[in-house]
Design a protein that fits this description.
By secondary structure, the chain is of the alpha/beta class. 27% of the residues lie in helices and 23% in strands. The strands form six sheets. Strands 8-9-7-10-11-6-12 form a seven-stranded parallel beta sheet, sandwiched between helices. A hairpin with a 2-residue loop joins β3 and β4. α1 packs antiparallel against α7 and α3 packs across α4.
Length: 663
């Protein structure tokens, strides 16, 4: 308990608590210090955010200092607090994301021998790459940059040169990637390129320290602990990681890089919701360091910021070496219909055959795993649905699986509704395409890249190595193969269903479809051998395809921006989504309606809904949504939404999730 006259500290607690907590301490502690604190009947760690002369809460529990843990740097602590406040989350959520298993990881007893990375020969930057590096280096303090480089233009070489300069100074840098599948290849490349950097002796780092660190959920716990402490103890570090790497306790951060900044995977969709790219920009701002956002197909938000001058623009307009853009051709499926039960047209098969005859490789892209998305009874028309979700089950060989909740069941012998045995699987999935390819090209070595086949980073790395070694002739894959991979002998890309991304019925569907198809087209002909891209579509006159074929990205972007501006959608407006969920649908509906009635409706702000979520039931939980929208001129929506929610009581059986700038 509190001693009379004992110093008082206010502590950031990594729990879902609505406020900070006050504690007494034996001696004053500076802001950023780690402490061990009792919370309820349990204990946890926390960070001092303020020292007080007294507390309004009377008798206080005692906090014990953790002197062995380096205090948080002020910008890091400011980031933890900002990311929770901006996303309308409990104040401790940013700190909670910084911990391992809810606490400070134990200090490794001794550093293990770092994994040897094969040194890479130095790369001579071409003129545009050198200019990009020079521009970033010449701009002191914070500035956000769009590294706008076509696929294969050498964005990674720019990253490496910037990282080299940070590491030579003993500083710390963060390189974010959208998916852990990209980490092994990039880590090897970056680590090898930086292997010859001499670290400053002033840091007194032991020779066993590897300054290039991986950080994502697939990294072993021991390696994550070692990386956490290396960063916390101000060690020189280049962290290559997924969005969670934002929350490492950086002490000397000098550079933030975001690769494939447009990728929707940067949006955390479960639990504590935040956008990794936007958070990275704010992290760099708080540290006063450059933030480089790299992409061949930037998000419309980043593209617009670069157009208006809010962000700087660094252009890489040509592919590296002698490679040129692969020509893109459309296959009209209305005229070139595949055979019944098949999904590859004759023109596409002809090009595949010619590619194989030349000893080159091909990629078939279809962003849907499994065998077929739909199992239908031909007698009564019943679609086999998930008993826990309002979705149909996807056929995966001899079983059916829900892609929302993971529910599985055996392939049925008869229809559960009418008992008829005439069941048919409709639509393509990666496995059905693989089977068709193996029938058409029995001598070809075929591999599949989807989340069913590749569940770990080592599996992804093994497949990438196999393709690079020319042990695969035809690769069939989902979005896992779209980004970041470089295969010199891959010259043919075929898109099985170019229309799939356009059928999603939301504001960003055309943007995402364009980005995905542009990126997958960029896998073809990245070295000396010329490439070609074929896109199968039922709607070849769609403006999106014209922009792809003619390489008119900016024209397409300007049209999309005009539509966004007309509706005050991002980047011309702000939005916050509220999702109510519960087990009893009428209760959820009533709560959503009550929340809508209490909306204050200030001038210029619109409330849409309530309406059922696109998938209204997931895991036996019903979900209804409201969307608050306003033009940028209104200012931040967070204070309005927070006051509105706090003034509206909800049933205890209904949960509320708030998401800022939902995708």
């Amino acid at each position: 308990m509190e001693m009379v006259g004992a110093p008082v500290i206010r502590v950031l607690v990594p729990r879902a608590l609505p406020t900070l907590l006050d504690y007494s301490v034996a001696t004053p502690l500076p802001v950023g210090s780690w402490v061990r604190i009792p919370v309820g009947k349990a204990g946890t760690v926390g960070v001092v955010v303020e020292t007080l002369a007294s507390s309004p809460f009377g008798t206080l529990k005692r906090a014990e200092p953790l002197p062995e843990v380096p205090p948080l740097a002020p910008p890091t602590l400011a980031f933890y607090r900002w990311v929770a406040r901006y996303n309308l989350a409990p104040p401790g959520e940013g700190l909670r994301a910084a911990l391992l298993r809810g606490t400070v990881p134990s200090l490794p007893k001794r550093a293990g021998k770092p994994k040897a990375l094969k040194p890479q020969p130095p790369v001579t930057l071409h003129a545009e790459q050198a200019a990009a590096v020079a521009a970033v280096q010449a701009s002191p303090g914070f500035k956000a940059w769009l590294l706008d480089g076509v696929t294969g233009s050498g964005k990674t070489e720019v990253y490496i040169e910037l990282l080299r300069r940070v590491l030579a100074q003993g500083g710390q840098a963060l390189l974010l990637v959208p998916e852990i599948a990209l980490t092994p290849q990039l880590l090897q490349r970056v680590g090898g390129a930086l292997a010859d950097v001499a670290l400053p002796t002033a840091n007194h780092q032991p020779p066993t320290v590897n300054p290039v660190l991986a950080w994502h959920s697939g990294v072993a716990e021991g390696a994550r602990k070692a990386a956490w402490w290396q960063v916390a103890q101000s060690g020189p570090a280049v962290v290559v990681g997924a969005r969670s790497a934002l929350f490492l306790p950086f002490q000397r951060l000098q550079l933030v890089l975001v690769d494939e900044e447009h990728d929707p995977s940067y949006k955390q969709a479960e639990g504590f919701r935040y956008h990794g790219r936007d958070s990275a920009v704010q992290l760099a701002h708080l540290w006063g360091v450059p933030c480089v956002l790299g992409s061949a197909t930037p998000s419309l938000e980043t593209f617009q910021h670069a157009q208006t001058g809010k962000y700087g623009r660094l252009g890489l307009t040509a592919r590296h070496g002698s490679a040129g853009h692969a020509p893109i051709a459309l296959i009209d499926l209305k005229a070139a219909k595949p055979a019944k039960g098949q999904y590859l047209s004759a023109p596409l098969k002809e090009v595949l055959a010619a590619t194989l005859a030349k000893g080159e490789q091909a990629l078939l892209f279809l962003n849907r795993r499994g065998n077929a998305p739909l199992l239908v009874c031909r007698a009564c028309g019943t679609r086999r649905g998930c008993p826990r979700c309002s979705t149909t089950l996807v056929v995966h060989g001899d079983r059916l699986q829900c892609h929302c909740c993971g529910f599985t069941e055996h392939y049925p012998d008869e229809c559960p509704s009418c008992g008829d045995t005439d069941l048919a699987a409709y639509g393509p999935g990666t496995r059905k395409v693989v089977a068709e390819v193996q029938t058409a090209f029995p001598q070809a070595r075929v591999a599949v890249a989807d989340s069913d086949a590749l569940t770990t980073a080592p599996q992804v790395a093994a497949l990438v190595a196999s393709v690079a070694a020319r042990e695969v002739d035809i690769l069939v894959g989902t979005q896992m193969v779209v980004k970041g991979h470089h295969f010199p002998y891959l010259t043919c890309v075929g898109v099985v269903d170019g229309d799939m991304g356009l059928a999603q019925g939301e504001a960003r569907s055309a943007e995402r479809c364009f980005q995905q198809l542009y990126q997958v087209a960029g896998r073809a002909g990245r070295a000396e051998r010329p490439g070609q891209v074929l896109i199968q579509t039922h709607d070849p006159t769609h403006p999106l395809f014209a922009a792809l074929v003619n390489h008119q990205r900016d024209t397409f972007y300007q049209a999309e921006l005009a539509a966004r501006q007309a509706w005050a959608d991002s980047p011309f407006g702000r939005s916050i989504q509220l999702q109510l969920s519960g087990k009893h649908e009428p209760t959820v509906q009533a709560a959503a309606a009550a929340l809508a009635r209490g909306f204050p409706r200030p001038a210029g702000v619109r409330l849409l809904g309530p309406a059922p979520a696109p998938v209204v039931k997931v895991r036996d939980t019903y979900r209804y949504r409201l969307l608050v929208k306003a033009p940028n001129a209104f200012g931040p929506l967070q204070p309005l939404v927070q006051a509105w929610v706090e003034a509206t009581p909800l049933p205890k059986t209904v949960d509320l999730m708030v998401e800022v700038e939902p995708l």
